[in-house]
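hey so i finaly got around to running the thing on ABC transport system ATP-binding protein from Sphingobium xenophagum. pasting the sequence first so u can double check i didnt mess up the copy paste, my clipboard has been acting weird all day
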Amino acid sequence: MSASAPYCQYLPAKERSFFMHMPIDPATIAIRAHNVTLSLGTRDAPVEILTGVDLVMLRGESIAILGASGSGKSSLMAVLCGLERASGGDVHIGGVDFGALDEDALARARRGRIGIVLQSFHLLPTMTALENVAVPLELAGDVDAFARAADELRAVGLGHRLDHYPAQLSGGEQQRVAIARAVAPRPTILFADEPTGNLDATTGITIMDLLFDRQRAAGATLVIITHDPSLAERCGRIVEMRDGQIVSDRTA
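ok and heres what it spat out for the 3d tokens, dont ask me to read them lol
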């Protein structure tokens, strides 16, 4: 019997199929979602977005959540990040029960645990690249926020763009700033939602190389939300979704 078997016997079947032959320590679990559901709309006419998702992600893994538009992959990310509250089930992030927290407590729990890179960059247009990266550090009370922000921008190749505003940067440079901002607080989990969706193919490859590099440097779990199978294959594991459910979970 593998070292993981005693723990796996308590996992749902979809989780057991992936972990049964792996040594696993519960302390290494970054994310655990059990029977997660999400319904939107009215009580009389609910729209089922997620329907009983079971998922375990380990610390340091790189995982692609793959699916077509409308499959529920971005909604699952929102629930796992604590940006959307699940309608049912349990979500534990780094051992913290996100379902038991109010909005203020969720914001505090995300800080330092979760970094997010979005397709549309979402930089603050009136702030420089340096200021954009320093903001989350300042909110966390880091007295060296600007020095750390500058170091992270240099790490993504933007040491010469510290004082530039988003409108003065290319799409690829803006995504580099977004990566630096997400990684600077040293999160244990890094989410990237279609991180190359607004970039040309060549720039997209460069950005993904950078994202994996920064993930390894931080030792973080990387979760990439994508519809692109070729991008998903770059991850160590691929979780495929369809109609709000996980339909496959395999190593890449």
